[in-house]
Amino acid sequence: MWFGNLREIKQYAGFFDYLPSMHKQYGKIFRFWMGPTNLIVSINDQEILAETVPLLHQRPETARKELGWLGKESPTFKCHEELREIRTTIMPLLVGKSLDYLCLVGRGRMEKMLDNWAISPHGIRAEDVLRDTTFDIIGVTLFGQEFISTSLGRSFRSLFVEVMREAHPRSQEIIPAVWDYRYWRWKQKIRKLHSCAEELIKQRRCSSKTSKRKDLLSLLLNEKDENRELLFSDEQARATIVTFVFAGFDTSAASLTWILYLLATHTDAQRKAQREIDCILAGRPPQLEDLASMSYLTCVVKEGLRMYPPVPEALRKIDFDIQREKYFIPNGATLVIPISTLHADAENWEKPYSFVPERFDSMHERKQPRYSYLPFGAGPKSCMGARFAMTEIRLMLSMILQRFSVELAPNQDVVPEMYSIILQPKYGLKINVIPRKADMMNV
Question: What is the DSSP string of 282-297?
C-alpha cells in the first residue's frame, strides 16, 4: 500500500504503455495510486474530458516537484485570472513577426546542421543533433543572437541542459536527498541558471535598441498595459522565458525524431512529402508563407504527433467533486488526460497504429471528435506555443527533406520510453541520410 501501483507501473515503459493497457482492461475510467495517498484517475472519455478539463486550472504537486526549478512565477504554476492574463498577453507575441523571426533564425541554424549531415557518412544520432539544433533555434528566437554569441548566453545554455538532466531523477525522490552533495550542487546550478537569465534581462533593459529587436524577450520587456506601465517584472520575464525554453526545445526535438523515424519506415510518404516540398520551393529556402502551402507535410507532422505525442499524458489537479453515472471522483484527486491513449482509440481512429497522414487532410480532420486529438494538451493549461511549435517543426522537416532522404540504420531496436514528461526512443535513433541530387529539388 505504501507504494501504491508504482511497482506495477515500472514494469511498463512508464505511463505511455501502462495507461493504454489499463484502459483496455478496465474501460474508459480507472484509478490507481502513486504512493499511499495520491489518487490518480485516468479518463479516456471525450465527453467527460470536454466537460471537466476546461474547469481545471492547477497542476498537481507531482508536477511542481518535477518542474519547480522553472521558478515560482512560471506560467506553469499560475491559475485562473493570472493565467488568463498571461495567455492574453503572450499568445499574440507568438505569431506574426515572431514567426518570421523564428523562420529567419531556423534557416540559419538548419543550414549549419545540414551541412554537417552532408559529411556524416556513418549516419546520425537523430535525437542528439535535433536537440542541439532546436535548442539553438528556440534560444536565439527567445533571447537573440546573444544566446550563442556571448559567454553569458552560452553559460545559460550549458546550465539549462545540466539542470534539466538532473530534474527528473530528483523529482522521483520521496524525500529530498539533502545529505547528498550532488543535490546541493544541482540547487546551485538552478540559482546560477536564473542568475544568467536575470543578467540577460538586465542587459536588455539597459539597451537603447530593445524596442527595435524581434526576439521574444525584447517583445516581453516592451509590453505595457493600458496605463503605459510595463506588464512584466524582471522576475516574471525570467520565469516565463525559462519556461518557454523548457517547453520549446525538447518537445520539438522529440517530435522531429519520431517523425523522421516514421518517414524512414514509410518511404512512399517520404517521397510524397518531398515532391510537395520540391514543387513549392523549387530549390530555394522555405519562407513562412511556404509552410502554410505544404498541406501534405502538415498532415505528416500531425500524424506523427498523433502516434508519438511528445508529452503523452497531461496531469491536472481536481479541485471539485465529479459525479458521472456510476463514477465518483473526489476533490483533491489527480486527473490524467491519457493523450497517447486517446490518440490510439479505435472508436475514433481507423487503424490507429498505422501511419496514415491522409487522415488529417481537410475533409477528414473536420470529422474528428472533440478531445480525440490533443498533441498540445487541452484546457487552460494547454500549450501557448502550439502554432510556434508547428511552424518550427515544419520548417526544419521541409529543409531536411529538401536536401536529404532518410532511412533507418540497420540493427537497432526502436522502443518508446518516457523520460521525465517527454516520449523518446529508449536506445536513441540512428538514421542514415542520403543527399538528394540538385536536379530533383528544382522541379
Answer: TTSPP-HHHHHH-HHH
